[in-house]
Amino acid sequence: MIRILTDSTADITPDLARQWQVEVVPLQVNFGEETFQDGIDLTSEEFYQRLESCDKLPTTSQPSPEAFASRFSQAAEAGDEVVAVLLSSHLSGTLQAATIAAEDYPGIHIVDSGSVTLGLQLLVKLAVQLRDSGLSADEIVARLEEVRGRLRIFAVVDDLKYLRKGGRLSGASAFAGTLLGIKPVIQVADGKVGLAGKARGMPGAYVALFKLLDSCGGIDITRDFMVGYTGSHKACEPILRYLVHNLGLPRCETGHIGTVVGTHAGPGAAGIAFFCSEETEEEQE
User: Fold this and answer.
1) Helix ranges, the chain (H)
2) pTM for this prediction
3) What would the mean pLDDT of 68-79 be, rounded to a whole number?
């Protein structure tokens, strides 16, 4: 049997994990001296409530190699293989911890998703579909590595203070941006979180996001895509309307954007995770 494993930054709910038969290894979220197991004793809703009132941004701690070793040991005893699809190695040492643990067990396959939150969830969902269709662990890994370069997340950010607190934006820039009503658009691509664009006001930011969808070749509608939000679901409604009314796509799944991206985006952000429909020049090479 093949077991699919991921980490809590995939933002897969416990019910969905049971439905997909996916194992989730939690990261730790630290608010000052308080430590929580991500997704276990701190929900997304509770995380954003705390985030809005905190003076200092929370931090996350990667799982230990032992946390992965216990899962790998159970699989080895059962004679199962494991495909572990984990958040970008550029964003955390989680993948390294899993790699260390995997050295002592056979049949462990580690995949760097190059993504996080809903993007990672899309790749985990694909792994589940491939497992259920009867592919081998090696075949699943090959398929995931083939498409992960086309995985993108674009998100609009409502409040610059969280980017400033996290050191991704200077205080002066944040102050000037607030006065001018500037709203950034962030992206997760090639395993990294960065600034993709900016516009005046949230309506302008949504338009900038829609243009970015076109600039990378559009959405591959043969694959799953998701819309996400931080804090309130209202933030993702403009994206859902654009997808349905402008692009003629069916209303897609929505979900909470979790701790890693949410810490820097803050409440009131919204975004979309999808696979680009065209290969980039780098992939063609």
Assistant:
1) 14-20, 44-53, 65-78, 94-102, 117-132, 137-147, 161-165, 171-180, 201-215, 237-241, 259-265, 281-284
2) 0.90
3) 97
